[in-house]
Every structure is written in structure tokens, then in C-alpha cells.
Write a structure and sequence with these properties.
The structure is a homodimer. Chain A is α+β, with helices and mostly antiparallel strands. Chain A has 3 helices and 4 strands, in the order βαββααβ.
Chain lengths: ~100, ~100
């Protein structure tokens, strides 16, 4: 089973932006400690500061499955509920 | 001027998918040779194979500007014209 990459795009409701900064930092720091995590970065769109993009790499689908049941991911998932204008998730295989 | 990351999402019209594979490979190989290119990868969405995602990192905005006037980028830009269902571009700064 080879590496999988994830791009997740969040458009945050403005009233929650400050809270998101705190939660984003927490989930980045916790996720990077996971054994199957190859890369876990959070980016901000330079044109629209309410758009945040996770660029992630995982050793395998199993690593993603394990991530999805961690306390920090479950906490983050509960936190974002109702606080996003939009959300887009791409699970990717690298071609070139 | 610090590093900038780019996520570009292309949804390809099915009739052009084969041609895109050839062109994607060419622009990846040529772009990686550019001095300011830190990372230039092409991914395919595991759920929708007509969705392709570039994940790029550039040393600076100047490096992106130089990339945008290269022959290989201008060729690719002309090639994609009229061949996409959708296109999304995010120029990003890494936060965490």
C-alpha cells in the first residue's frame, strides 16, 4: 500500500476565524506526531484569508484510517461543525 | 520573500484525458528543472479520476512569475484552453 496525499480546503465563517487558528495549530502539532504521517501542513490562501488548505501525506490508507479515529481528529471534527462556509476534500495518489 | 505553495485543481473533460496525461508529464518534468521550483507534483483524485491536483512549492513570488513566462508553461496554458470542466487555483502561504 503506497503513500496517499490529501488536500482539504476549508472556507471559514469569519466570526470563528480566531478560534480556528488555535484549533488548526493543535491538530497540526498532534497529527505530525502520528507514525503514519509523512506531512501535515496548513496553508492560508493569499487572496482570501478565510480559505485554509491542508496539504497532507500519509504512509497508507491505514494511516489515514488511524488518523480519523484519533482524539485530536475527533475533537477537530466536532469543533468545525457549523463553522464552515465550505469544505472540499481530495484524497490523492501522486502520478508524477 | 518566503516560500509560496500552490494547489491547482483541474477537472478534465473526459475526451481529453489521454492527451492531458502526456502534457501533465511534460510540464512536471520541465517545471522541476526551474531554479525557483521547490516542489512540483501532480496527483490524481482517488474518487474522481478526472480530477487532477498540482501541489507546488516555489521559493518566492518571483519564482512563480518566472515560471508563468516559461515556454513550457505557456505551451501548457494554450493546451488546456477549452479542455477543462473546472479549474481552481490557490496561492498559499504556510501557517503551521
Amino acid at each position: 500500500m503506497s503513500q496517499l496525499n490529501i488536500v482539504a480546503i476549508f472556507t471559514v465563517k469569519p466570526e470563528y476565524d480566531k478560534e480556528f487558528r488555535v484549533e488548526f495549530k493543535k491538530i497540526v502539532e498532534a497529527s505530525r506526531k502520528e507514525a503514519g504521517c509523512v506531512r501535515y501542513d496548513l496553508n492560508q490562501d493569499t487572496k482570501n484569508p478565510l480559505v485554509y488548505v491542508f496539504t497532507e501525506s500519509w504512509a497508507s490508507q491505514q494511516a489515514i484510517d488511524e488518523h480519523n479515529v484519533t482524539e485530536h481528529f475527533k475533537h477537530f471534527k466536532a469543533f468545525i461543525d457549523g463553522k464552515l462556509e465550505g469544505r472540499q476534500l481530495h484524497i490523492l495518489k501522486q502520478l508524477f
